[in-house]
Amino acid sequence: MYKILMTYDSQEGLDQLLNHPDFKVEVHAKPSPEKFKEIIKDYDGLIIRSEVKVTAEIIEAAQKLKFIGRAGTGVDNVDKKAATQKGIVVSNVPGGNTISVAEHTIGLILSMARNIPAAVTSMQAQKWEKKKFMGNEIFGKTLGLIGLGRIGNEVAKRLLSFGMKVVAYDPFASAEVAKNNGIELTTLDEVFKQADYLSIHSPLTDDTRGMINKANIAKMKDGVRIINCARGAIINDADLIEAVKSGKVANAALDVFVKEPPVDWSIQTTPNIITTPHLAASTEEAQVKIAIEMAGVVIDFFTKGLIRNAVNVATVDWDTQKQMMPYIELADKIGSFQGQIVEGGISEIELNYCGTVSEFKTNPLTVAYIKGLLGQILDLNINSVNAITVAKERGINIKEVIVKDVKDFNNLILAKVKTDKGEYSIAGTLFDKQQRIVSINGLNVDVKPEGHKIFINNTDKPGVIGTLGTIIGSASINIAGMTVGRKETGKQAVTVLEIDGEVSADVISKIAKVEGVTKVKTVIL
After folding, report:
1. pTM score, two decimals?
2. I need a surface site. Which of 58, 297, 419, 499 has the fewest CB within 10 A?
3. Which residues lie closer than 8 Å to 476 by C-beta, 6 or more apart?
């Protein structure tokens, strides 16, 4: 049974997980850092919202943890680097709150345009100040978006219907898709220059931290209005306060802040700045959608091995995963085989994806190969999360080569490894749904990548195979199959023996002494 820790109380929408026989869910709401470190060691999975920080210290204390699920979009409160190094998957639910955040953004825009919060406060004070709260139409105004992901697109879609012009900056968005949606994709400076309303929907990164600052505000229109429902640290609070007081920024509406709840309330008490306590995703509908999807993500991860919505490892949808699984397994076995026979420090890996396998997203295949390879070489817990990171930390250069056409096979995965002792290669294919290793170091073979093997480099000359059979037979080991790869008689060959069970070090030592044998290794797949 998998133990899952939740750090918040609400369990609405989690029925599928709570009632699953393979899971035990326990709630410790908002644990202190000290308590968190104490209890986390017993759990396989962790589900959080924004109320706790999963620091490197917490992750280090987690002895069994394999999965961290953020029931929401942002994962700023998780040390993703530490999680990745420890092989822990970090997933979120990026789409569940999209509509709620988009609607809240529009509510803030309308509140600024029509002075709604101030007018409400005035009426509550029994004042009738109709002239004081003259508003503005948003029709015909320009909406500038920073970030054109799910939320940005939903905001644009709705405000286009209000008659606004929409310009956007997003370095990862498609200009063609944006254009088809009625959005002009342009530079960041152009968005600053054109926007009457500037709405932020970008993740917090090194590039976006403090992006809304004095220098960039100076590029904006006089009287611009700024909305932030993304991450508080994208705005420099002091610079925004100064700009609002000077009139450069007519209004600002903020739902997110650097510290939540705030320690310094200066921005919340500044006139012409509307603030809400991180409410954008706080609708009943959004919370239930997020909980339902997170329950499915957790169950799929532990029961199917399917990684969804991960922020620290590439993922594919379940249907694609099922199609790719035989190739993923083959890549893992090629890596494992190579890791057991390669010699020397690895400096470069080149993975060639040929034929039909080249049509898939190759990252899961590369990860599987690296996991298989390094899992045989390093005394570390290597999995699909940390495999690439560990390889890069050790200075291994990884190349992927796509080859659409391949001779002799419909599909082929060819792995080439360069070390300080030479170059090694293994190729594998799926033939009628059966996995086969078909080449080792450029020599053709036919090896099932399963079970116990003895791998031998030898000179192709009479007597070698007979002597090998005698040694192995004398040790009461049955040879279930054998393949020999060679190019020329009397030259170097590779011999792979399939045996029933393990072989002792003494037998390997005897094989190594056979005349013509230059290398012998045991392989277990």
Report:
1. 0.64
2. 419
3. none
